[in-house]
Amino acid sequence: MDTVIDVTGLRKTFGSTTALAGIDLAARRGQVLGLLGPNGSGKTTTVRILSTLLRPDSGTATVLGHDVVAEPQAVRSRIGLTGQYAAVDEALSGTNNLLLVARLLDLPRSQARRRAAELLDRFELTEAAGRRVRTYSGGMRRRLDLAASLIGRPDVLFLDEPTTGLDPRHRNEVWDSVRELAADGVTVLLTTQYLEEADQLADDLVVLDRGRVIAAGTAASLKSEVGGTRLHIRPLDRADLTRVTALVGELAPGAEQIVGSGGELVVAAAGPALLYRVGARLDEAGVAVAELGLRLPSLDDVFLTLTGHRAETGTDQRPEEAA
Ligand SMILES: Nc1ncnc2c1ncn2[C@@H]1O[C@H](COP(=O)(O)OP(=O)(O)OP(=O)(O)O)[C@@H](O)[C@H]1O
Ligand SMILES: [Mg+2]
Questions:
Q1: pLDDT for position 250
Q2: Atom of ligand 1 minimally distant from the CA of 211
Q3: Domains, the chain, with CATH or none
Q4: Ligand 1 pocket, 37 CB below 6 A?
C-alpha cells in the first residue's frame, strides 16, 4: 500500500492533560481521511504533530516516509496546512498574503503572481484581492487561508476544520476543491465537526474521543457497526400506522419499533427479507405507502452512540446521564 501518513502509538500530554493517549492511523496517496471527535478529543494536536508544529511525547509519525520529529524540514516542504484559526496577516491584502507565502516557499516571482491569481479566482476572492484582510469577513479569511495552504502545490494537505464559519455555497466550493485535489493524488487529512462533511468527503474516518481512537473505517462500515440497517415504513394515510405496526409485529415479533416524527414506523436492525415480506403484506392488505425502504443510521447516530455527544455541540448527554 502506498502509505503517505503513518502514525503509531502517538502520545502527547500537556501538564496533567492527556491530549493523545497513543493513537494509530494511516492514509494512502489520494485519500481523504476524516478525523472526527468532540471538542478536546485531540484532533488539532494530531494535526499539529503531523505538520511538525508540535513534538509528540512518544510514538512515531511519518509523512511521505519522513519522520516528523527527525526530518521536519523534509515534511514541511511537501505539506500544506490550514489551521483551525485563520493564520492570515490582517495588515496585508489578500494578494500580498499569498505572495508572502510564495516567497517563503522560494517560488519565482512571476510564478508566484500567477499562482496567487489562480487561487484567488478559485476561492472567489479576486474582487477583494487588493483589500487589507482586516476588512474581510470570517468566511473570506478562511478561504484565503485555504488558498495560502495550496500555493506550494502540496502532496499532503492538513485541514483543521476547514469549513467552520463558511456558508453552504462556499462550503460546497471547498468540498469540490478537496475532491479535485484528492483526485490529483493529494492526500488530505481533514478534521471536522460536521458529520455531513465527513460523509461527503472522507474515504475513511477515524473517530477520536479523549485522545483515543474509538472507531475507524468507512462511513458505511461505522454506520452498520452502530446499528445495521433500519426499515422505514410511512403509510400514505397516517391513520394506517396502527395497522402497519400490528402487521410488522406479526412478521417480526420482538423487533424494536419506533414511530418517527414524520409519521413513519422505524424497525431497528431489519434487513431485506423483512422489507420484502412487509411490502407484500401491505400490498395484500391494501395499505398505501408513501415510503418503504432500508436505511443506514446517519453518521449523527454513529457519533452519538460512540461518544455520547452530538457532533456539533459536544455537550449533549446520553439520556441515562441526563436523568
Ligand atoms: N498548548 C496546550 N496547552 C495545554 N493544553 C492543551 C494545549 N493544546 C491542547 N491542549 C489540550 O489537549 C486536549 C486536546 O486538544 P485539541 O486542541 O487537540 O482538541 P480538538 O479535538 O482539536 O478540539 P476542538 O474540537 O475544540 O478543536 C484538550 O484537553 C486541550 O485542552
Ligand atoms: Mg481543534
A1: 94
A2: 14
A3: 3-224 (3.40.50.300), 229-295 (3.30.70.870)
A4: yes
